[in-house]
Design brief:
The structure holds 2 protein chains of 2 kinds.
Chain A (H helix, E strand, L loop, with lengths): L6 H4 L9 H4 L2 H4 L9 H11 L3 E9 L5 E8 L4 E8 L18 E7 L4 H10 L12 E9 L1 H12 L6 H7 L1 E9 L9 H4 L10 H26 L8 H6 L1 E6 L3 H7 L1 H19 L6 H19 L6 H27 L4 H12 L2 H12 L3 H4 L20 H11 L1 H4 L11 E5 L6 E5 L14 H12 L8 H7 L4 H10 L18 H12 L2 E5 L5 E5 L28 H9 L1
Helix pairs in contact in A: 6-9, 13-14, 14-15, 15-16
Chain B lengths: L6 H16 L5 H12 L3 E2 L2 E5 L4 E5 L4 E2 L1 H13 L7 E7 L2 H11 L3 E6 L2 E6 L5 E5 L11 E6 L12 E5 L1 H11 L7 H9 L7 H6 L10
Parallel strand pairs in B: 1-4, 3-5
Antiparallel strand pairs in B: 2-3, 5-9, 6-7, 6-9, 7-8, 8-10
Helix pairs in contact in B: 1-3, 1-4, 2-6, 3-4
Classes of the chains: A alpha+beta, B alpha+beta.
Amino acid sequence: MPETKSFQENQTLPLKHRSPESLMRLDRMGASFPTRLSFMRTLIRRMARERWKFERLRFEVDDQGFGTSVYAVHTPHRTYSLIAFSHALEPDQRTDRVIAEAWDATFNLFDGIPEQEDLDRLRENTPRQEAGRYLPSELVLSRANKSLRLFDHVVKRLADGLQPDVSLLNSVGYLMRTTAVYGSGKFGSADRAKISSRPEALGAFQIEMLNVFLIRWFSIDLVEHVARCQGGSKAVGMEAHLKQSLGIGNATGLGMAPFLVNHPKLIHQWVSAKENALARVRGLKNVSRDSLQSFENLLEKVRIHISQWRVDDEIQTRKIHQLKQELETMCQEFEKRRAQNPEYLWDQLLKFAQSRFSLEGQELTVSMMIEPHGDLVDELAETMHASEEMKIQPRMPLEKLKLLIEDHYQWALEIDFSQSANRKQFWYYSEDKLEPRLGDRFQEPGEELEMPLAVARDVSELYGTLEKKPGDQSTAEFLMGHPEFRRTVRRVQSLHSFSYAEIRDNLIGENVKPIDLLRFKLAFFGATKFDPKSDLWTRITMFQGAPMPEELTTCDPDAWAFPVLPGQDEGSHAASVVAE
Amino acid sequence: MGAQVPFGIAEEFALWSVWMGSSGMDPAPHGNRVLNYLDQEQSTLQGKLSRNSKNLHLNSTTDQFLSALQAGCFVGDWLGEDQETDPSMVIENVDVPFLVAAAAGHSSTPCTVSWSEPECWIVFDTNRNWEMSWNGKVRPDFSGPSTVSINRDPDVDDLVEFENRSFCEFQKTRQQVLNEGIRTGEEWSSIMSYFRRCLVPSSIQSRESGAGAGLVDTD
């Protein structure tokens, strides 16, 4: 029985949403996994559904791989082009940090097909990245560095007529990793408003994801080209399933954190969509045989996916180890309950996970439960955007403003900011290429230039000030004398009906781990293989396992969830899953 | 913003700048002037609100001008509110009157904004189009400090009396700007110098440990 058509009659439980008190805490945010609503998944589905056409317009690259390339994608309504400049890069200049000055490759996503004069102009600017200047015809500016150990290996093997070593391929997962992807009006490029009403750009970060998808294609073209130049007639191309197993890497640092705090309504929409999806699944009274079978297949696939997730970080390694055990437990529990044919199986399984599993185990369970229910939940991806407009209500009496804080920011009032440990760190932009950094408030200079990310502290300070003011004073009068609270007042007055908008934790405390924020956002992007390098940054892989452009019209666009790679320890089974 | 302006006000100023850009204007000269007034302590953000029989009144609490950054925030809040109690307001001695108009324009609420030196009147309609009318040779978007009146329920018949007019068809201009950008002038370098004051100087320690990733990645 297809679940979509019967959803309302099949659903009798009131839809259950997990509480923001539980969800919007850093530790759980740092345990996030992608779902089928993640932005890469949404993009791939649209590409396949609308039968986007891909075309390599230029590949003017020398035998070392340096030159200019243009890749076009034709959507039903318009064309976008990736312009790629690949360069020689000295080894000591290769860094993933924002402060880098040179890269292996630099890119623009162009609105339309570039003319020669566009290419000439961009060749002077794009390799300089932030120091260049761009026009509204450019939608995205980005750059990437090679994974030298993998890129050089693949070139050599293909040039010798051999396929790359699968274990090395798997251990890295990408030929290039992006180190910055800028959209929305940066450095003169197009404002988001230019494209925001286009169907293909409506969802979050769709244009930026398209840019990354095209870079992946370019990186594979580039490695094959260099191999051909080196190997001549002996050289071979990479096998299709190996290409598919390669994604694009990404090094993500502190820059993502301000975005989350500064786009609270958008974050609410993202989390709401995911929680609505979960609630719909939990509300299913009867479970179809198809979805049972899909879940069973998925459990096996995820088991292999997790077994192939290897990192150096000790904490994450322990978490992965526990996750493997929890997956085994989930397999057993699923079989047991399935045999009993109960009502509300998904709700039961989630409750089981919540009572027994780690946060990673719980969040992985959520992603797995949503996965077989595309017909039920995919439409929710259309709701994952928002206007960030926030307004002051000038007539609101201060006593009401205080009540709003007491009702919605109790979590902030519970933190004692007189304790230095609770305000030890501060976020700031460095004069070094505006690199976002985290500093020790009591050891380093710059506290007075702190970024406004400490929502909990600011609300707490506002509340303390309001306690000394007459309750019948208007907000407008208060702000005339206290302009420093305008941002916080606007936030409190605007967000009380957006329950998932605030990160309900202290972002300046001694023990804050920015990497929790990064993983939360990257999971919504659809990233996998989180590879924490410290509390401040992580590497990830994007589009790993996704179809290549030429495969989009012939494959299941959702088969790449929880990608498994052809690997030594998982052998032919893993390879067959990729090939599905 | 580099002139001790709180973030909450700075963010609203950014939205007015977007409105100016969407109207085909370079926002830098206006931004530069308002920051200069504050930086040179000729203006203040401290305001006082009162009400007489006719109007809401807003004025500086000191003998300095009232910064348009504070005045514009108040006007934006007031216009954004669905109320009929106070149809008009007067703000005394605003340093950069046109920024108050920009705040009104950003609010998308039909109204008029006027001041007297030079005599001018700006009308915002329901489609976000706006028309600026004035007497004399100096365009009012560059006028000096003045007392500004805002009316939510304007009588536009008086417009015919002005010598000069400039009309902005907002949505059309905005679309053109989104596609082509706007011309900017030399005043951006002054804005950038204010901006640089917001950045924390880098040290060896902060460069090495304040952010992620290594300084060289040979992976």
